[in-house]
Amino acid sequence: MKIYDKLYIDGQWVESHANQMIDVINPATEEVAGRTALADKVDVDNAVQAARRAFNSWSRTSAEERADYISKLADALTKRVDEMTHTITTEMGTTLAFSREVQVEDPIDALAKHADRAALLDHEIEIGNATAVREPVGVCAFINPWNYPLHQMIGKVAPALAAGCTMVVKPSENTPLHAFLLAEAIDEIGLPAGVFNLVNGTGPEVGEPLCTHPEVDMVSFTGSTRAGVRISQAAAPTIKRVCLELGG
Q1: C-alpha distances in angstroms, 211 versus 202, 217, 242?
Q2: Which among 118, 116, 188, 122 is positioned nearest to 160, based on CA atoms?
Q3: pLDDT, tens digit, for every residue of 159-194?
Q4: Is 56 helix (H, G, I), strand (E, B) or coil?
Q5: Which of 86, 177, 210, 216 is the most exposed place for a label (fewest CB within 10 A)?
Q6: Closest to 246 in 3D by CA, of 230, 94, 151
Q7: For residue 244, is it left (φ>0), alpha (ψ between -120 and 50) or beta?
Q8: 228 vs 159, 186, 208, 233, 242, CA distance in Å?
């Protein structure tokens, strides 16, 4: 059984302010597959502030440097394919063969391809008398679903790293174990502190503070239409960019 009793904030494994744990249930056996720390709004604020501090320097790194970190992360995850496959199978219930190919190997392949896309930020586009310049959005909050956990997380994290954004990630509290493995890989490659932060918890305790936090510039959410509506409402007063994939 995997036990992760700390959150990953500002490049360190830290005790959660909430000081609570949650059981992760294997849906095939209904046994406890692991336990993880839960975050609260204090932990969210700490993570967002870390991401904000890291943004100025990370957003100014060269495309080559960002691409190198992405490639290193893909390599670090490749070394963990077996562990990640087993973890995702036990926390969300797909078969080992499906987990390996679709839930693990496909996301790693997608991550690796974003190394080349890091250079896109440096391209300017002339449109008539106008010049289009690409800039990183800023601090991003990524709220992820249970059914394609690593797949959807990489779909948010990879382009953010390529673009020079910093991030706070919230996995589904039903399937958080893979996210802690991802954080271990990120820590291993030495990604600058604050670029990636992991806070696990429920929508009301973690998702809501992320969506209302004034230092968050963008929210990306995959999940239910009901939750997507609430996220749009919560983000509106601070005029955040909101990207929603709903009702699948």
Answers
A1: 13, 9, 9
A2: 118
A3: 999 999 999 999 999 999 999 999 999 999 999 999
A4: helix
A5: 86
A6: 230
A7: beta
A8: 21, 28, 11, 9, 9
Question: Among residues 15, 8, 24, which one has the least CA distance to residue 149?
Answer: 24
DSSP string, 6-56: SEEETTEEE--SS-EEEEEE-TTT-SEEEEEEE--HHHHHHHHHHHHHHHH
What the block records as the tokens of 100 is 């390996």
pLDDT tens profile 28-75:
999 999 999 999 999 999 999 999 999 999 999 999 999 999 999 999
Q: Please, which pLDDT band fits residue 122 given cuts at 50, 70 and 90?
A: confident
Q: Is the pLDDT of residue 238 over 90?
A: yes
User: What is the Cα–Cα distance from 193 to 247, expressed in whole angstroms?
Assistant: 34
In the numeric block, which tokens belong to residue 95?
């078969």
Closest CA to 16 of 176, 127, 140, 223: 176
Cβ 240 vs Cβ 216: under 8 Å: yes
Full-prediction pTM beyond 0.70? yes
Query: Topology of 2-246 in CATH?
Result: Aldehyde Dehydrogenase; Chain A, domain 1 (3.40.605)
What are the residue boundaries of the structural domains of the chain, listed by start? 2-246
